[in-house]
């Protein structure tokens, strides 16, 4: 989920040759935060299909090779490994708040997504209410009315005489109002056990999600950091910010 925020951030402050496609916020603007929030939202919408000549992939769906969610410590203890992940709904966003601290080089973004849909191949193992759970196959996960808060810490580095941004750290806080999941082929295809367990997971979604939320936040943030840094590596710092 973070790469799209960073794409937005870069393009809206960008003064490179493609800046005409996007509104630009000036760092000296007293209403910088309002401008930033508006431009982040507008650019996320415009990045839905990507920008081929910049090598920017489609934002909706957004592809992730793999994700791992570690098991928590609660009664719904489930380790989740996902591959061939497709995230939908990331371009349909309302940015509620944004702030960039120039001195600290810190970016804060708060956004709301009506629905984020994750489709992937999964492998799960663990226990739910003392019952062993295992399986692999296709899985769907829907986060409804999902709030995402991001805090990015940047630093400037010099390469070949030019300054670029390096991402020192990213912190994500991902909180849905509801989660709907379905795992195909649980218990090696035992339909009765699989249907019953899917019902339990749907009913107890909050206990499961918030038990593994620290791992969700951490692992999604790391994945997005990797892709975002690839973008920062292409664009000099003086082509990102407009004074």
Entry keywords:
243 residues, alpha+beta, Bactericidal permeability-increasing protein, domain 1, disordered N terminus, biological rhythms, signal, To_sf, Haemolymph_juvenile_hormone-bd
Strand runs, count: 6
Q: For the record, what is the CATH homologous superfamily label? A: TULIP domain
What average pLDDT do the residues reach? Answer: 85
**Percent of residues in beta strands:** 35-45%
Structural class: alpha+beta
Overall form: elongated
Integer-rounded radius of gyration: 20 Å
- Percent of residues in helices: 25-40%
Distance between the termini: 28 Å
The unreliable regions are: 1-5, 7-21
Family: Belongs to the TO family.
InterPro entries: Haemolymph_juvenile_hormone-bd, To_sf
Pfam families: JHBP
GO biological process, one term: circadian rhythm
């Amino acid at each position: 989920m973070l790469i799209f925020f960073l794409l937005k951030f870069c393009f809206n402050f960008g003064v490179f040759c493609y800046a005409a496609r996007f509104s630009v916020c000036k760092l000296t603007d007293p209403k910088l935060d309002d401008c930033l929030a508006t431009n982040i939202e507008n650019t996320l919408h415009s990045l839905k299909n990507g920008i081929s000549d910049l090598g920017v992939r489609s934002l909706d769906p957004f592809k992730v090779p793999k994700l791992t969610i570690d098991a928590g410590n609660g009664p719904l203890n489930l380790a989740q490994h996902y591959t061939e992940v497709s995230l939908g709904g990331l371009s349909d966003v309302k940015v509620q708040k944004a702030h960039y601290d120039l001195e600290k080089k810190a970016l804060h973004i708060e956004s709301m997504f009506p629905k984020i849909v994750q489709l992937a191949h999964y492998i799960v193992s663990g226990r739910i209410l003392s019952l062993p759970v295992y399986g692999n196959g296709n899985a769907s996960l829907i986060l409804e009315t999902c709030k995402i808060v991001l805090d990015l810490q940047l630093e400037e580095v010099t390469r070949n005489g030019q300054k670029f941004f390096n991402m020192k750290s990213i912190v994500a806080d991902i909180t849905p109002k509801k989660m709907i999941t379905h795992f195909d082929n649980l218990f090696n295809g035992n339909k009765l056990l699989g249907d019953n367990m899917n019902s339990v997971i749907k009913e107890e979604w909050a206990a499961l999600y918030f038990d593994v939320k620290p791992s969700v936040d951490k692992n999604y943030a790391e994945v997005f950091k990797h892709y975002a840094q690839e973008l920062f590596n292409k664009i000099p710092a003086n082509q990102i910010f407009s004074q």
